[in-house]
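Write out structure tokens for Protein YhfH.
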Amino acid sequence: MVKNIIDFFKNLPAKQCTKCSSYIEEQHECYSQLCDECTGVKDL
């Protein structure tokens, strides 16, 4: 059982893009599986 939910989320491993294997620079608990470059998202 998880004693502290904050510790659980802090200790999640960094997510990697399923297409190019680069690390995704966003919250690890998000649902996205692709990085910004592979999804075509550009900075404004």
